[in-house]
């Protein structure tokens, strides 16, 4: 593969990483600490992720337990969870906070499936934009005399193969996450 494509492959990889993080944060009816990744607590004036302030563990299939290292932060953590969009009411017993994940309704599963597909489509658009950026660069190099016509054709084919590979990976991620949501 053309060494010029390495930077574009890295960008495509980043797109997949972002999609994986987004999917990890989707609440799927079973306890998953990743749902708290985007929740921050105002801790001494600085927005701090919960996992840096507390031990977060899955104690049962649908229960997430948050045990702060500093008990005085319990109320702040509870407030941050309530203000977030995860849609679960925290239960504070004075020493730990429990999040009980309700089972998903059929309607909610279908809604989540649509969101998963939409995010997958956005990731593929991003991959295709990276392809377009690579193609533009290749054409500019040809125009500047840095590439021959044959080199350009080969590089364009490599770029398209790379794009197809990453779009296929996105499709596989969408299928896996959709299956996970629908099976619960």
What is the topology, as strand order, of the major beta sheet?
3-4-6-5
**Termini, distance in Å?**
42 Å
* Largest sheet descriptor: 4 strands, antiparallel
Which percent range fits the helix content? 55-70%
Which sequence of SSEs, written as H and E, runs from N to C?
A: HEEEEHEEHH
**What is the radius of gyration?**
22 Å
Query: What ranges have pLDDT less than 50 throughout 5 or more consecutive residues?
Result: none
Count of alpha/pi helices: 4
Overall mean pLDDT: 87
Multimerization status: single chain
Structure description:
It is built from four helices and six strands; from the N terminus they run αββββαββαα. A hairpin with a 2-residue loop joins strand 3 (54-60) and strand 4 (63-68). The chain has helices spanning 6-24, 74-83, 106-143, 149-183, and strands at residues 40-43, 46-49, 54-60, 63-68, 90-92, 97-100. By secondary structure, it is an alpha+beta fold.
Helix and strand layout, with pairings?
Blueprint lengths: L5 H19 L15 E4 L2 E4 L4 E7 L2 E6 L5 H10 L6 E3 L4 E4 L5 H38 L5 H35 L1
Antiparallel strand pairs: 1-2, 3-4, 4-6, 5-6
List keywords for this structure.
single chain; 184 residues; 4 helices; four-stranded antiparallel sheet; alpha+beta
Q: What's the quick description here?
A:
This protein is of the alpha+beta class and 184 residues long. The chain has helices at 6-24, 74-83, 106-143, 149-183, and strands spanning 40-43, 46-49, 54-60, 63-68, 90-92, 97-100.
């Amino acid at each position: 593969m053309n060494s010029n494509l390495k930077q574009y492959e890295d960008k495509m990889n980043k797109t997949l990483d972002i999609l994986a993080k987004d999917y990890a944060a989707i609440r799927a009816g079973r306890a998953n600490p990743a749902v708290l990744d985007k929740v921050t607590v105002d801790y001494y004036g600085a927005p701090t992720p919960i996992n840096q302030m507390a031990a977060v563990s899955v104690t049962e299939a649908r229960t997430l337990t948050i045990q702060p290292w500093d008990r005085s932060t319990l109320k702040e953590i509870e407030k941050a969870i309530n203000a977030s969009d995860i849609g679960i009411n925290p239960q504070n017993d004075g020493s730990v906070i429990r999040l009980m994940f309700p089972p998903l309704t059929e309607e909610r599963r279908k809604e989540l499936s649509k969101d998963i597909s939409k995010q997958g489509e956005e990731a593929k658009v991003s991959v295709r934009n990276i392809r377009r950026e690579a193609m533009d660069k290749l054409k500019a190099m040809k125009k500047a005399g840095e590439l021959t016509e044959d080199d350009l054709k080969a590089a364009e084919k490599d770029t398209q193969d790379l794009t197809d590979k990453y779009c296929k990976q996105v499709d596989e991620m969408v299928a896996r996450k959709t299956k996970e949501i629908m099976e619960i």
